[in-house]
Amino acid sequence: MKQVYSYSQLFFCLILCWNNLKAQEKPKYLDAEQSDPVKMGWMVGSPPQADRIARFDDGSFFQFPALRWSVAHMRQLMPTINVSRGLGNSVALITNDTKKIDDVKFVSLGETKPITWKESLQKVYADGVIVMHHGKIVYEKYFGALTPDGQHGAMSVTKSFTGTLGIMLVKEGLIDTTKLVSHYIPELKNSAFGDATVRQVMDMTTALQFSEDYADPNAEIWKFSAAGNPLPKPKDYDGPKTYYEYLPTVKKNGVHGEAFGYKTVNSDVLGWIIARVTGKTINEVLSEKIWRKLGVEQDAYYSVDAVGTPFAGGGLNLGLRDMARFGQLILNNGKSGTQQIIPKAAIDDIRKGGSKKAFAKGGYPLLKGWSYRDMWWITNNDHGAFCARGVHGQVVYVDPKADMVIVRFASNPLASNAVNDPYSLPAYDAVAKYLLTIK
Amino acid sequence: MKQVYSYSQLFFCLILCWNNLKAQEKPKYLDAEQSDPVKMGWMVGSPPQADRIARFDDGSFFQFPALRWSVAHMRQLMPTINVSRGLGNSVALITNDTKKIDDVKFVSLGETKPITWKESLQKVYADGVIVMHHGKIVYEKYFGALTPDGQHGAMSVTKSFTGTLGIMLVKEGLIDTTKLVSHYIPELKNSAFGDATVRQVMDMTTALQFSEDYADPNAEIWKFSAAGNPLPKPKDYDGPKTYYEYLPTVKKNGVHGEAFGYKTVNSDVLGWIIARVTGKTINEVLSEKIWRKLGVEQDAYYSVDAVGTPFAGGGLNLGLRDMARFGQLILNNGKSGTQQIIPKAAIDDIRKGGSKKAFAKGGYPLLKGWSYRDMWWITNNDHGAFCARGVHGQVVYVDPKADMVIVRFASNPLASNAVNDPYSLPAYDAVAKYLLTIK
């Protein structure tokens, strides 16, 4: 087994979210400017300098600061599958970049001295940020290795795409959330998911024996990671070899429906259900239902396992501007121009949120009063804001009251959003208030 | 070493061209209709059926008939790097599909009974064909796993892209063809390329000890393939680990400049020179010089080795319609609309051809009177036709007299173009004559 871990120990960072890790004492990392992958010369040259090569096979690609290059070049490191936009032209995004967002000030959580929005972007190692207001771009910036025509790993923001497709299929009548998972995926009958409802999977209230404690070499997360790794398995490896071989091995631990437990495998189970009921892979479903209709500028893509299964729990990569279009679509209750791409009822279902009581048991001290629904994070604040979140600082933040969407790609050396949240959540609020003030 | 071969024995097919193999007795293969990958259900289902999975790690992806699915899904199998089209809108291709090309008849080489164009497409296992006439699409068809918004492996058609970029840089003054390769790439000083001129590399008249005899397990092609394979190397592997580590090991065998010797490594050396003089990888150079300007509909991509070096000798994948745009650009002497994208002098250099005498020594009995220049195949026929060719039936065929471009993707079970040529070369002539007749 040792050899499996040797090449997947860092790959896991890519494919799994450790949001439930406690924020930790920060070791000394290079700051955002020092670790700028372009200035550092990562993967530049023919061949690149030996100490500036990000490799997939030894996991070095996901070690900071190489990570800062890698998140914008995932496809160069591993096999992937396209989310086609089709061949049509894109719908232009209108820019009205006259606001003074860089100067907006806020006090980050646990601090007393205010910092500016601009300063906060360095704190979170932002690779790109767009703020949409009244449907127009009011702020757009790129840093490090990301360009407007590049793509970036969305990490667990992927889950909200999966959840959105899931609730769309529910509203179309293809999925019944009250049914047991085993109704759709008989292969999961003897696993923890066998007696869970689809709704429990979509809201992550399943009770799973599935540790995402990365410090524990026996944590299930490692086995899931090894199963999904597209590289050849070592000869002595006898575990599951794909995502769909792994999922049936997940064991139950407790009672479903009582507590929120953020476990990536729920998203992959939902992805499996989506694939089964549509007869298509999730990249194709995303392409047909949203990507071909939204006027995006670029194909998106998913990482895949050794048999081509897209990683529904964290494998999506896409352009920042396209992620802004997606956020705007969600804010617009599923409508883009005159087209109702996502049924309004699906967005309503997301926005109504999940059980706050269940969420409170999930262990997120910074996210008091929040809930989780259809794989979206619901703030339940007075703006009705909700968001998609991924490790290392990825976010789609939708604030209906301020008519604002913030999308961000980042490459924080630390994965947990508990590290980013102090510089992010009050920043979103401050920008929202600013935009509300200036109309 | 054995383990290296185990996973790369089929990968080589992807990355290398064995055009110089003699046509062989055909074993019994499923025909084009029987082997249609969609009908066969390759990679369909969640998960796909066990005997319908194309895997990269064991090389099964490149075994016929899985090959027919794989050539249209290379990215799903291996790491790749984008050739960005940018974010602008594409330039429309106008279709004028009123011609009766399907009914055009011709006699294939070595046969006596005529067949139709339509029948010939089945013989060559075509995945997609476009015929352009007077700049408009007069024929466009897709088969098997290829769709208009999909991409397909161009195989050695890649070399002609590399050659085109090379001659463009020559005309820009960045590369001097009379200089020795070692002038640009000192790392190659002690290799066969050390005392070869850039021109000899571009026309493949270098004298290399480099066998592309796939039947010989000791052929150099295997070592090149193992070096470029992006999968982790076995522990006991002590050979070169990347393309750029392999190329300096190529030994000389004979005198440069005397005979055409079709060896893939020449293209990778030219790719290296292009990367060195521009300071960019070849995918970036292709993007900047052509792809962002041509109004293409899709990003293209290259396969890469373990350190991200694009495979300049055979790793390009692109959409069929975009390959038609490229062919049309070449036919138009480098002009697209009012934009001179490629200097006319570069196209002139290609069209004037290489040494027929040298070519005659290259071992292509079906290609009498042809020559090779700037990594393009020059027919020297009375239409002034020239082409880019890749294993398993890939082609860009440019016929200036008929004002015609034919582009084709295919997945013939046999790699050698000697198998396709009897059904292809007379077919191109027949269509050209037909189009000349009807104006």
TrEMBL record, chains A, B:
Q: Which Gene3D superfamilies match?
A: DD-peptidase/beta-lactamase superfamily
Q: Which keywords does this Swiss-Prot/TrEMBL entry list? A: Hydrolase
Superkingdom per UniProt: Bacteria
Do you know which InterPro entries this protein is assigned to? Beta-lactam-related, Beta-lactam/transpept-like, Diverse_Enzym_Activities
Every copy of the Beta-lactamase-related domain together lies at 128-411
Any one Gene Ontology molecular-function term assigned to this protein's record: 6-aminohexanoate-dimer hydrolase activity
The EC number(s) attached to this protein equal: 3.5.1.46
Enzyme class, top EC level, equals hydrolase
Pfam families recorded:
Beta-lactamase (PF00144)
Record protein name field: 6-aminohexanoate-dimer hydrolase
Q: Which organism is it from?
A: Flavobacterium bizetiae
